[in-house]
Amino acid sequence: MAGTTVADGGLVERAFEAAAVELGVVPGTPDHAEKLAYVRATMGESKISVFRHLFGTEDLARRANTAFEKAYGDLLDGGLVEPIPGARAAIEELQRDGRTVVLTTGFARVTQDAILDALGWQDLVPLTLCPADAGGRGRPFPDMVLEAFVRTKAADGMRQVAVVGDTSYDVLSGVRAGAGMVAGVLTGAHAEDAHRASGATHVLASVAELPALLRGIG
Fold first, then answer.
1. Which helix (H) or strand (E) segment is 56 a member of?
2. Which pTM value belongs to this model?
3. 3-state secondary structure 158-183
4. Which of 77, 104, 125 is the last residue of a domain?
5. Which residues form the signal peptide (predicted)?
6. First to last CA, the chain
7. 110 with 71, same domain?
8. Torsion angle, CA of 177/154/94/210, rounded to 10 degrees?
9. Are residues 67 and 142 in the same domain?
10. pLDDT of 83-117, one tens digit each?
């Protein structure tokens, strides 16, 4: 969602700052810089998985994740989130074309719901998924893509599934799931070279280009 259909103005990094302070990571130190670099490199991954890597123990990871979710929610309350230009129209156009759209995220459900509420998108699509909805493993694992396939029953096989995202982890999850189309978009965390290196079949300026692309492919 963030970076693909939703512009959050860098709220992930700002919320990480709050989580890091909560766990005693001092801004301006090499430790802080190293952890922030890892957060940037793993955009799209389940946030609890990121914190497990950064802080080592389950207790510290959960403390960091709770602080992150609270900080992100507080920032959302400040109105600092909006749709990527053309994203809602693209979703509605895809659905008019008879396609089923599922929104997935590396955030926890509470954060995902807060974003949907902030945008007025709670009823926009028939299904939204976070890592916990797919057994707990987020990207780059294929689990959320496969869960969407199983739950919606909208396709006869994975070759009829298109995965679109702004990070290399989004692309990897689609490739690993066997999706017929895996597109990277340039409105978020990673550039074209990262998408191509991860196996993207297409790179789009934004998700707004997706309906026309799919109609062209058939």
1. none
2. 0.85
3. HHHCEEEECCHHHHHHHHHHCCCEEE
4. 77
5. none
6. 25
7. no
8. 20
9. no
10. 999 999 999 999 999 999 999 998 889 889 989 99
